[in-house]
């Protein structure tokens, strides 16, 4: 896990967000996602500097489209957002959970 993933994991583990269970480094199909909540079918990805190289955006789009075709939804955050504004990252996750629960 990257440092940003470790930092977010401290807030997701042990059902701290609305009582939902998140897994880290979860395989789905042929991919491994950063975090996954099976009951919500929600993936959370943390994009760090490794996502800035040429072609990374296109690969991420293809990967995300394939997983979304399986009925999974995505939330993406930059690693600096996790470090600089973790409370708003959690609020955004909670907001998505409330949308899914409707």
Describe the structure.
This protein has 4 helices and 4 strands. The protein has 102 residues and is of the alpha+beta class. It has one domain (3-101): VSR Endonuclease (Endonuclease, Chain A, 3-Layer(aba) Sandwich). The radius of gyration is 13 Å and the shape is globular.
Pattern of helices and strands:
HEEEHEHH
Q: Please give the alpha-carbon distance between the first and last residues.
A: 32 Å
Helix content: 40-55%
Q: Tell me the strand percentage band.
A: 15-25%
**CA-based gyration radius:** 13 Å
Task: Tell me the overall shape.
Answer: globular
Number of extended strands: 4
Strand order of the largest sheet: 1-2-3-4
Number of helices: 4
- At the third CATH level, what is the topology name? Endonuclease, Chain A
Largest sheet: 4 strands, mixed
Uncertain stretches of 5 or more adjacent residues:
none
Total discrete domains: 1
> Class, according to the CATH hierarchy?
Alpha Beta
Q: Residue-averaged pLDDT, rounded? A: 94
Oligomer: single chain
List keywords for this structure.
102 residues, 4 strands, globular, Endonuclease, Chain A, single chain, alpha+beta, 4-stranded mixed beta sheet, 44% helix, 4 helices
In short:
The protein has 102 residues and is an alpha+beta fold.
Fold topology:
Blueprint: H1 3-12, E1 23-28, E2 31-37, E3 42-47, H2 56-68, E4 73-78, H3 79-84, H4 86-101
Parallel strand pairs: 3-4
Antiparallel strand pairs: 1-2, 2-3
């Amino acid at each position: 896990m990257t440092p940003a993933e470790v930092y977010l994991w401290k807030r997701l583990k042990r059902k701290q967000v609305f009582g939902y269970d998140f897994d880290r480094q979860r395989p789905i199909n042929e991919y491994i996602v950063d975090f996954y909540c099976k009951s919500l079918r929600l993936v959370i990805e943390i994009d760090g500097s490794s996502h800035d190289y040429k072609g990374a955006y296109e690969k991420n789009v293809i990967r995300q489209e394939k997983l979304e075709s399986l009925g999974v939804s995505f939330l993406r955050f930059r690693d600096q957002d996790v470090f600089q504004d973790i409370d708003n990252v959690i609020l955004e996750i909670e907001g998505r959970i409330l949308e899914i629960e409707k």
